[in-house]
Amino acid sequence: MKIAVLGAGAIGAYVGAALHRAGVEVHLIARGAHLAAMREHGVRVLSPRGDFTAHPHATDDPAEVGEVDYVFLGLKAYSYASSGDLLAPLMGQDTAVIAAQNGIPWWYFHGMTGHPLEGQRIEAVDPGGSVSAVLPMERAIGCVVYCSTEIESPGVIRHLEGTRFSIGEPDRSISPRCVALSEAMIAGGLKCPVEKDVREDIWIKLMGNVAFNPLSALTRATMVEICDHSDSRDLVAQMMAETLTIARAAGCDPQISIDKRIDGARRVGHHKTSMLQDLEAGKRLEIDAIIAAVVEIASLTRVPAPTLRHVYAAIDLLSRTSLVS
């Protein structure tokens, strides 16, 4: 098995190090000081499950790597459309792409045989077909990340919690390529269940992201602060309820209670969401996959979703007026 990690940041480098420890041929594609450190010292993982160091090949040039069996995408979803030049040298006839992204993926309605929206393109995450032109639907393996990591310093990954990477085919099959990837991830010390319908995991995680990410950026509050403020907790619950209604209208029925989902988020504590961190760093906000696509699916399925629409309007305006690097 040969795997390239395109965008070997906090999550990508952690996954790459784990797979390399399992004996997989891994190539990390990164840049800057982080790349230089990984080249010289390998990837050092600091984890409550035990520290370790791995020495996979690291480069900024995918042409050095060549065709691989899998590409693990560690890029932000809004970078997919512009990643064609980086992806091209890695893509063989049967190369699969694991998109470890938050929110609704560009392939969401692909493979939903019999559903009224089967094959529907979601403009928010595939504008003008620009992403599917670079990442054909048939290459996609869904992936939902239940893992928290950060780059403590160049080449050093701090693993905070979670090791689960749920994967699955858009057409709900249990494919050999998913099974093989799962076995490699498990051998590297990660959890990697192959789900018959990974969309359920997408919506369960999205219930938190769609509410806490934009609200934290708009209020500068941590997750526990949002949960402990009665009115903002009610706002989260309204957003989650609308999200569940949209999920069901789109053909998925996540089995989780809203109170349980909020309480789970509260236990994370004084954590700044990725969207708040990006805002404070002057980076582009990842709103397209996290909330814009949900609002678009609401329109496609004729679900009103007024709370989501109002919060989306506010976070969209903030994204347009804040500094972007």
Automatic annotation (TrEMBL):
Gene3D superfamilies: N-(1-d-carboxylethyl)-l-norvaline Dehydrogenase, domain 2, NAD(P)-binding Rossmann-like Domain. InterPro entries: 6-PGluconate_DH-like_C_sf (IPR008927), 6PGD_dom2 (IPR013328), KPA_reductase (IPR013752), KPR-Related (IPR051402), KPR_N (IPR013332), NAD(P)-bd_dom_sf (IPR036291). GO terms for molecular function: oxidoreductase activity. It comes from the Bacteria. Keywords: NADP, Oxidoreductase. Belongs to the ketopantoate reductase family. Pfam families: ApbA (PF02558), ApbA_C (PF08546). Residues 3-170 form the Ketopantoate reductase N-terminal domain. The keyword Oxidoreductase applies. Residues 197-316 form the Ketopantoate reductase C-terminal domain. This is 2-dehydropantoate 2-reductase. GO terms for cellular component: cytoplasm.
